[in-house]
Amino acid sequence: MQTDFLVIGSGIAGLTYALKVAQHCPDKTITVLTKTQSDETNTKYAQGGIAGVMDLDHDSFEKHIEDTLIAGDGLCNKQVVEIVVKEGVQRIEEIIEWGARFDKESDGDYKLGKEGGHSEFRILHHKDVTGKEMERALLAAIAKQKNINLISHCFVIDIITQHHLGYLVTKSTPDIECFGVYVLNLASNKIEKILSKITLLATGGNGQVYRSTTNPAIATGDGVAMVYRAKGRIENMEFIQFHPTALYEPGIRGQNFLITEAVRGDGGILRNHAGEAFMEKYDKRKDLAPRDIVARAIDNEMKVAGTENVFLDCRHFSKEKFTEHFPNIYEKCLSIGIDVTKNMIPVAPAAHYSCGGIKTDEHGRTSISHLYAAGECASTGLHGANRLASNSLLEAMVFAHRSYLDAVKKIDKISFRENIPDWKTDGTNVPKEMILITQSVKEMKLLMSDYVGIVRNNERLSRAMKRLDLLYEETESLYQKTIVSPQLCELRNMITVAYLIVKCAEFRQESRGLHFNTDYPGKSERVQNIVL
Predict the structure, then answer these.
(1) Residues 259, 345: contact at Cβ < 8 Å?
(2) Per the domain annotation, does 524 fall within a domain?
(3) pLDDT by residue (tens digit) across 478-531?
(4) In this predicted structure, what is the pLDDT of residue 38?
(5) Element (H, E) at 351
(6) pLDDT tens for residues 308-357?
(7) Which domain holds residue 395?
(8) Domain-located, residue 308
(9) How many domains are contained in the chain?
(10) Could you tell me where the beta strands, DSSP code E, fall in 362-480?
(11) 227 and 149 inside one domain
């Protein structure tokens, strides 16, 4: 199969890019691949909203820029922050034109929320399912484009580069090129080649590396792992944002239900098991401090008390106010016996967002020619050491747009690469026991949660690396001997991502933003990105 533009991932970044390319190049073919159904993405689970300076009477670009830089703790690329904040308003207006519906006041103005780290009310939202609404609008717009082929249930195994043509490719190879991808077609169970002139990775996050996460099961870091194997540049993977308030349900592992930060923005109060409002002990902004501070505070309260959760108190809200703003959260809590008007909500931190990822420039270009990245899998320089709440959807749309602008200028100068070999399956067998894969997944999630969580130290990181080395050897041996499956590929990708998180954490000999190492509690005078 050949396609002019190939998009891997169907979240907000991938769909925004595909839609823009399709409208600009009606004579070109655009193929969008997704490994499950088209709407199962991290975008779908983004509750809180999208940040944008929509009220210039009370807000300004300068304030949003400053809030982002403060949250990023010295590691943001200021030029990129200015680009995203200033161009973001146009991108928001575009998705509104495409049909996205954000909540409005009775006078027609948009209802603007406030979240941790923001100095003003600037969060647009659709109830507590903003991402789902944006995904709906984009998929509806995509369906009207005749030159977009959206293929679900296709698992991308690897990026095709000169390596697959028999050349030696290393990190220092100056002209690595992407010619397309190998995919496992889950309908036919065969591995196929898709050749492309330009490819965009929009593969989302990697929360499934941890035992508790707000991410869906698909968030296994596939794009980051593929680029690393292809000798592309990855940076700042140690900065994993733990959302402070995931719903705590005893025994639940995998995807945890998110209690959006907007609940605290509306006045929700965090309390410990003694009923004390504890955030004032940690930060003058109390419950609206940035996520890294709130997550560490909750982690400390849990460790001191020996408990597995704290509580979010919304009992002072009127039922009408809560159900209007957060209908999904209200129904979810009620389904497990919690009436938020009478009971506090049990919450605990869970892996939520990866601030690092595939290193890109201000046009979304990676270190591999003809390969772009946008959304959570990319490291653009916007988030630095800690992402400001509701900046992620904004970043995804801005860099989807910038990647599109750069790609359409180049497309006619690029040819398909010929003589790409078929995927070799010689000497491989059906795996005899799936337990070899599932047990390794459990071990990896456990060691990452226990050793590489909110608070780290050198001994824990060393132990994590030793155990990951063993899991890597076992998994690579299995990969060489058995037929490829999505479960095996995801395990392989997650082990690679876990390794990158630990390796970057070992290199960063300081505590900054989301990375807190008790052996280096202070900040280093030298502010640097960790690039692998």
Answers:
(1) yes
(2) no
(3) 999 888 899 999 999 999 999 999 999 999 999 999 999 999 999 999 999 999
(4) 62
(5) strand 345-354
(6) 999 999 999 999 989 988 999 999 999 999 999 999 999 999 999 999 99
(7) 2-47+129-238+355-413
(8) yes
(9) 3
(10) 371-373, 378-379, 455-456
(11) yes
34 DSSP 8-state letter = -
pLDDT of 250 reads 83
Do 283 and 188 share a structural domain? no
Q: What is the pTM of this model?
A: 0.92
CA distance linking residue 532 with residue 237, whole number of Å: 9
Beta strands of 122-170 (E only): which ranges?
A: 123-124, 148-151, 154-160
Q: For residue 51, how far is the Cα from the chain centroid?
A: 16
Percentage helix, strand, coil for the chain under 3-state DSSP, each rounded to 5: 40, 20, 45
Which residues neighbour 119 within 8 Å (Cβ) at sequence distance 6 or greater? 63, 66, 67
Structure token pair of residue 507: 């290199």
CA separation (Å) from 277 to 66, 309, 362, 459, 492? 28, 14, 42, 33, 43
With 0-12 CB in 10 A as exposed, 13-18 as middle and 19+ as buried, what is 111? middle
- Identify the bridge partners of residue 181 per DSSP, sorted by sequence position: 159, 194
Counted residue by residue, the chain has a size of 532
* Pairing label, strands 269-271, 254-255: unpaired
The SS3 assignment for 56 reads coil
Q: Which two tokens stand for residue 187?
A: 């309908």
Q: Which of 122, 211, 264, 291 is catalytic?
A: 291
CA distance 421 to 435: 32
The pair of structure tokens assigned to 373 is: 């990245």
For residue 291, indicate whether it is catalytic: yes
pLDDT in tens, 28-77: 999 999 998 766 666 656 667 899 999 999 999 999 999 999 999 999 99
pLDDT of res. 40: 65
